[in-house]
Specification:
InterPro entries: Aminotransferase_I/II_large, HTH_trans_reg/aminotransferase, PyrdxlP-dep_Trfase, PyrdxlP-dep_Trfase_major, Tscrpt_reg_HTH_GntR, WH-like_DNA-bd_sf, WH_DNA-bd_sf. Keywords: Aminotransferase, DNA-binding, Pyridoxal phosphate, Transcription, Transcription regulation, Transferase. One of its GO terms (molecular function) is DNA-binding transcription factor activity. In the C-terminal section; belongs to the class-I pyridoxal-phosphate-dependent aminotransferase family. The chain has three domains: 104 residues, Arc Repressor Mutant, subunit A; 29 residues, no CATH class; 95 residues, Type I PLP-dependent aspartate aminotransferase-like (Major domain) (Aspartate Aminotransferase, domain 2). It has nine helices and eight strands. Strand 1 and strand 2 form a beta hairpin.
């Protein structure tokens, strides 16, 4: 396939040129100016078109690939990805990138999140059963939705059947349901610095919270054991990966099997 004659429309910005090229590429994919599968200009051709060095274009293409906008094939070139195809476009599950877990980025027009949302909404609008989807749904999600949840959990290493999956209206709703189902009147164990939504959920359920000390790795095991004994609480709410607000990551070597209470991670 011959390369497209694409030339980015660069906006004046304070940031580096390579980022502006990647932003322009994202914007043109969103507008439909660049279609899935099209081969982009070579590094040398694009460098000549925008008056930049080959190194700058190489970095721009690398940034676009990091965002999931393009794919590079040695000897063939750089191609636009199909953002509507989950098999081709799955940035949240791509292990070649850094997974920021529960963190979220704003949806900016022309950026990766905007492209994904636009594609998803377009696919939803084209469905023949859109009217049925807008009506009342089965409690806990439909069978297809719960099966999809089980498949996603399997990718993350959690073995669950569809019957064990419940679809919730967001993470806060899920937190309230989990605490209501699992916590006893003694309350909930939380990190001494914890997500405000967890405190709000416990407060709404009138459950006392018991703070547990943190260090640079997250929860301190000895402090957790003491809190379990002293409080009588049966549930722990914690964020072991990218803790909010410290960003600490709990090491896998931590052994929680000796802890006298059950754990529920948020």
């Amino acid at each position: 396939m011959p390369a497209t004659s694409w030339t980015p429309r660069l906006r004046r910005a304070e940031g580096p040129l390579y980022a502006a090229i990647a932003d322009a590429l994202a914007a043109d994919i969103t507008r439909g100016k660049l279609r899935a599968g099209e081969r982009l200009p070579t590094h040398r051709e694009l460098a000549a078109a925008v008056g930049a060095s080959i190194g700058t274009v190489t970095r721009a293409y690398a940034e676009a690939e990091r965002r999931g906008l393009v794919r590079s094939q040695v000897g063939s070139g750089t191609f636009v990805r199909d953002l509507t195809d989950p098999a081709s476009y799955s940035p949240m599950l791509d292990r070649s990138r850094i997974d920021l877990g529960p963190t979220a980025a704003p949806l900016v027009a022309g950026d990766l999140g905007h492209c994904a949302l636009a594609a998803a909404l377009a696919g939803l609008a084209a469905r023949a059963d859109l009217g049925a989807l807008a009506g009342y749904q089965a409690h806990g999600g439909s069978e297809a939705q719960r099966a999809a949840g089980a498949r996603w959990l399997a990718i993350t290493g959690v073995d669950a059947d569809a019957d064990e999956v419940t679809v919730c209206s967001g993470a806060q709703h899920a937190t309230v349901l989990a605490l209501a189902a699992l916590a006893c009147p003694a309350g909930v164990l939380v990190e001494e610095l914890t997500y405000p939504g967890a405190l709000a959920a416990a407060g709404w359920l009138r459950l006392p919270t018991h703070p547990v000390a943190l260090d640079e790795h997250g929860l301190v095991p000895d402090a957790l054991a003491r809190a379990c004994r002293d409080s009588g609480a049966k549930v722990l709410y914690c964020t072991p990966t990218h803790h909010n607000p410290t960003t600490a990551v709990m090491p896998k070597s931590a052994d929680w099997r000796s802890s006298p209470c059950a754990a529920s991670t948020g």
